[in-house]
Design a protein that fits this description.
It contains 13 helices and nine strands. It is α/β, with parallel strands linked by helices. The strands form three sheets. The protein has a five-stranded mixed sheet with strand order 3-2-1-4-5.
Length: 355
């Protein structure tokens, strides 16, 4: 009889439903997707789901629950599983969609998606998901709310400009638009106050943000967004993983001599991180020679300014990660110090060998 090595419950999460497929991997590395059922995405439905999983799985082998990051709909289920100490892995949707293209499924349904998620979880070694710390969760909610307010304010400002430019503007409309502008400004001010209160009440977080803000172009809001969106870099293991998570990694399609696509950033990642890096990259290019050199080198080689700007954004994000992990402040002259140190060591070696 074959021995079970791994058990996975692949869950396709929707607003109201949890579509689940159970799968096993045996000691001969064969895979069996053997059960499928749909449950309500409610507390009662989750309890029924867990009872069903318990009855149909081997009690001696742990079950890993694998799901996509589907906006906010997966959070209730993931938080409950985490609280009950179940193994949970959350995968970016683009990874599952790319994986499904390698399968022979010609139709895409909730059932086929849950089967693909289960098979993906059985074949891959996935990191265990950890619930975001409450402080980072609060910061994320506030920074995203502020982003929505800023976008809405731009829209209202454009409407106000259009109304005022008319030959016969409607005074009541202008008055209402100005009132909305005042309300949005008031809400943004309240959010900034809430953010400052959270940061100032946590000395460790305050120190981390201060170090990150030593990087040219990075302000307190940007530092807060990066820490909030990465949960304090908890699941980030290296710089490459971070740029991929932000969608700033480069994708390239090339095959033989006939297919040669232009290298582009994937944009399949956290859009809030990408957006937060845009304005700081402009300041970094203007005021920091290190980042300006990166920008000039890319633009002179590629001839496209946006590529140079994206390279600086990626470099800034990586620098934030390095500063956070090292617990040190950023130094513009680090490259010069490193070069002079290397030259000094070279001189010492030359002296020793000469004598």
């Amino acid at each position: 009889m074959k021995k079970v090595l791994k058990q996975v419950a692949g869950v396709d999460v929707a607003q109201n439903e949890l579509v689940v497929t159970l799968g096993k991997m045996f000691d001969d590395l064969s895979i069996d997707l053997y059960a499928h059922k749909v449950f309500r995405n409610t507390e009662k439905g989750i309890l029924t789901l867990l009872d069903w999983v318990k009855k149909l799985t081997d009690a001696e082998v742990s079950v890993r629950f694998v799901m996509e990051a589907t906006g906010v709909y997966h959070q209730k289920f993931a938080f409950y599983l985490y609280a009950q100490d179940y193994e949970v892995s959350i995968v970016l949707p683009n990874k599952i969609s790319n994986y499904m293209r390698t399968l022979e499924n010609k139709t895409i349904t909730d059932k086929s998606c849950s089967e693909a998620i289960a098979q993906f979880g059985l074949e891959r070694k996935l990191d265990r998901w950890h619930k975001p710390k409450k402080i980072y969760r609060s910061l994320q909610q506030l920074t995203r709310e502020r982003d929505q307010i800023v976008m809405e304010r731009v829209m209202v400002k454009n409407q106000l400009h259009a109304e005022q430019a008319e030959a016969e503007p409607n005074e009541r409309s202008i008055e209402r638009l100005n009132e909305r502008m005042r309300l949005l400004n008031k809400h943004e001010k309240e959010i900034k106050s809430d953010l400052n209160e959270i940061i100032n009440n946590d000395t460790i977080l305050k120190s981390e943000i201060t170090n990150i803000c030593s990087i040219t172009g990075i302000g307190e809001l940007t530092a807060t967004i990066v820490l909030a969106e990465t949960n304090g870099f908890e699941l980030i293991r290296n710089k490459k993983q971070l740029t991929s998570y932000a969608g700033l990694d480069v994708k390239e399609k090339q095959s033989g001599t006939s297919v040669k696509g232009k290298p582009r950033i994937s944009k399949k990642g956290n859009r809030h991180l990408r957006k937060a890096m845009y304005l700081p990259s402009l300041s970094a290019i203007k005021y920091d020679e290190n980042f300006r050199n990166v920008y000039v080198r890319i633009v002179s080689r590629q001839g496209i300014k946006m590529k140079g700007l994206v390279a600086v954004q990626r470099k800034l994000l990586e620098m934030i990660y390095v500063i956070y992990k090292s617990k040190n402040e950023y130094r513009k002259d680090y490259t010069d110090l490193k070069r002079s140190s290397a030259l000094s060591l070279k001189d010492q070696y030359a002296t020793q060998t000469g004598s």
